[in-house]
Design brief:
Elements: H1 14-29, E1 35-42, E2 48-54, E3 57-63, E4 69-74, E5 83-92, E6 95-106, E7 109-116, E8 140-144, E9 149-152, E10 155-158, E11 170-172, E12 177-178
Parallel strand pairs: 1-7, 8-10
Antiparallel strand pairs: 1-4, 2-3, 2-5, 5-6, 8-11, 9-10, 11-12
Length: 179
């Protein structure tokens, strides 16, 4: 019996399609590895959201529950690196987005981290506030709660004169974060 190659999907083509699908999904799994971040916000601030950013791009979010706990599942990191550094931020109704901390994510793992909020301000021996991300002082400036936006007279304008006890007080020009 002579094989009929004119059929739309024959047993002769099945191994080729199967091999293609196996290699496609197997190769793409090297680029997509899941991570879970469990944690708690160490302050009673009401309903807040934890943001995860990589290279200043939002990759995941989670709302903090009534017990101040959160869980963030990142299904697809799209990287071939075994670990990546991400930044965690906290935001909520009536509060500006504030930097919390940087952590390293390892593929197929669970990371536990608690976030102090508001972020404590460390100072060097001269009394200058250090950025919690880069550890430098020379690019850290105070945030003033006035209607102007941007940097003026070595101060960062918040664009509003409304300030709460959870408003960030400092801005790092190098890292582009408020804390």
């Amino acid at each position: 019996m002579k094989p009929n190659f004119n059929l739309p999907f024959t047993i002769y083509r099945l191994p080729l399609v199967t091999c293609f699908l196996f290699f496609f999904f197997h190769a793409s799994s090297a680029y997509s590895q899941g991570v879970v971040i469990n944690g708690k916000v160490l302050a009673k601030v009401g309903p807040v959201t934890v943001l995860v950013k990589k290279d200043n791009k939002l990759i995941a979010t989670a709302t903090v529950d009534d017990a101040s706990k959160f869980q963030i599942k990142i299904e697809d990191l799209k990287t071939t690196a075994s670990n990546i550094r991400v930044d965690l931020f906290i935001t909520g109704i009536g509060m500006d987005t504030s930097y919390a901390k940087s952590i390293v994510l390892i593929k197929n793992s669970t990371v536990n981290c608690d976030l102090e909020f508001p972020n404590p301000h460390n100072k060097n021996v001269l009394g200058d506030v250090t950025c919690p991300k880069c550890g430098k002082t020379n690019m850290t400036i105070p945030i003033v709660y006035q209607p102007f936006v941007g940097i003026r007279n070595n101060q960062m304008g918040a664009g509003t004169d409304v300030e709460s006890k959870f408003s960030p007080e400092w801005y790092c020009k190098r890292c582009n974060i408020k804390f």
